[in-house]
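Whiteboard transcription, Tuesday session. T.W. wrote the structure tokens on the left side:
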């Protein structure tokens, strides 16, 4: 009986879940870049009470399951652990958290004597607090051949908490930095050019859709600067809280401008869904997001602004498809443009869940898609202007033809009236001549 009881206890214990320890990430002379997600572990600290000494000896570490493991909107603190082992020559590796919206990041690393040091950064602190100049959070780690180091991070964020941890060589990291700098320079340069051209055209064309497009373009650029961390690098380095405050405000305004642009683009007075005008409700949610930025915690403000965009996007797309059903040429540009934006975002999501390879398209899909959207919408506005010109020219031609017909009718009427007057004149001449003859005859008769 005791043996049977012991066997049952062992069986029960073997069925209980036990924390899995992630293996070390091994790098060698051929290594350049890799996701560290499957070699990293995490520990959630909901009460914010765990110290570094405690987590080092904690046995509750859980393995990361995805490259872009997302913990959603949470107040919890998150601890990360990664062991790096170098089997190649001595060099510096860059451990990187590839998500720019982390409020607080504390990095714990062993020095040459094995004593752990701490470095604090995050987008709540000035940009100068970062160990390397990067829109993400990069941390240099020097490893001798055969050496291994265990690294720790403590992360908090009011945004969605996402921790895509990667490791790269210093050379590879620097080349990626140059590529990103070139791409973002081209991206924002294209936006500025489109912005200036359309601003210039508005003063000549006075199209209402043009000014909404310019406002939407400028507003979207601000959202992107905040989302991808570029604004922290180049614009508001010493005002880190600005990147948080501006985003829900700009997204709320973006939802309103999207609605206004759609109305002006298709020349609609109101937009109805199933006979119901829900435009005021959409405007109210967008306005609420803007007000919430100044009156509510960031987490609430960003959620409200995202709800506004979630509502307005299918709404304006349904309007565009209805306009396409009515055979409006402008609807083709509108739909193709938005599909480019959605496809770019989809590539980012698929990459986040490790469903597609990390590539240029999957990394910068949202920027490429958004630029495609802006260019196609600009083409749509240009085509609309040309269509207005064509209609104006056709109207002018129709007016000219009508004027010619009226002139011909007037000429005919004048000729007819002239002929009538000439006939009346001749009739009057004959009557006068007859009267004169009668008078002459009468005078002769009286004289005789």
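and on the right, the sequence the group agreed on:
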């Amino acid at each position: 009986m005791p043996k049977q009881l012991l066997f049952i206890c062992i069986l029960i214990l073997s069925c209980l879940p036990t924390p899995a320890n992630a293996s070390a990430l091994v790098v060698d002379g051929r290594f350049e870049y890799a996701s560290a997600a499957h070699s990293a572990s995490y520990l959630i600290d909901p009460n914010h009470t765990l110290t570094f000494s405690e987590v080092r000896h904690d046995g509750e570490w859980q393995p990361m399951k995805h490259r872009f493991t997302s913990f959603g909107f949470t107040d919890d603190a998150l601890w990360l652990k990664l062991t790096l082992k170098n089997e190649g020559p001595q060099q510096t590796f860059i451990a990187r958290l590839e998500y720019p919206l982390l409020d607080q990041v504390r990095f714990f690393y062993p020095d040459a004597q094995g004593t752990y040091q701490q470095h604090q950064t995050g987008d709540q602190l000035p940009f100068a607090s970062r160990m390397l100049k990067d829109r993400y959070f990069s941390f240099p780690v020097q490893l001798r051949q055969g050496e291994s180091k265990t690294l720790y991070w403590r992360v908090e964020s009011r945004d969605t908490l996402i921790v895509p941890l990667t490791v790269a060589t210093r050379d590879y990291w620097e080349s990626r930095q140059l590529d990103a700098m070139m791409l973002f320079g081209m991206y924002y340069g294209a936006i500025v050019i489109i912005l200036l051209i359309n601003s210039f055209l508005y003063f000549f064309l006075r199209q209402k859709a043009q000014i909404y497009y310019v406002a939407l373009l400028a507003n979207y650029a601000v959202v992107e600067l905040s989302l991808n961390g570029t604004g922290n690098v180049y614009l508001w380095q010493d005002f880190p809280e600005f990147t948080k405050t501006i985003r829900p405000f700009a997204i709320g305004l973006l939802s309103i401008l999207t609605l206004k642009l759609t109305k002006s683009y298709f020349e609609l007075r109101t937009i109805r869904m199933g006979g119901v005008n829900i435009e005021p409700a959409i405007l109210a949610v967008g306005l609420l997001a803007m007000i919430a930025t100044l009156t509510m915690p960031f987490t609430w403000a960003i959620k409200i602004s995202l709800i506004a965009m979630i509502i307005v996007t299918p709404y304006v797309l349904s309007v565009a498809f209805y306009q396409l059903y009515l055979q409006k040429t402008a609807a083709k540009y509108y739909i193709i443009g938005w599909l480019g934006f959605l496809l770019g975002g989809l590539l980012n999501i698929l990459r986040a869940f490790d469903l597609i390879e990390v590539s240029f398209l999957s990394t910068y899909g949202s920027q490429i898609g958004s630029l495609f959207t802006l260019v196609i919408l600009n083409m749509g506005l240009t085509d609309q202007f040309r269509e207005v010109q064509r209609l104006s020219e056709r109207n002018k031609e129709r007016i000219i033809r009508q004027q010619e017909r009226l002139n011909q009718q007037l000429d005919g009427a004048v000729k007819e009236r002239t002929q009538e007057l000439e006939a009346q004149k001749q009739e009057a001449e004959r009557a006068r001549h007859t009267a004169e003859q009668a008078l002459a005859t009468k005078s002769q008769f009286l004289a005789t």
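Someone added at the bottom: The longest helix spans residues 365-447.
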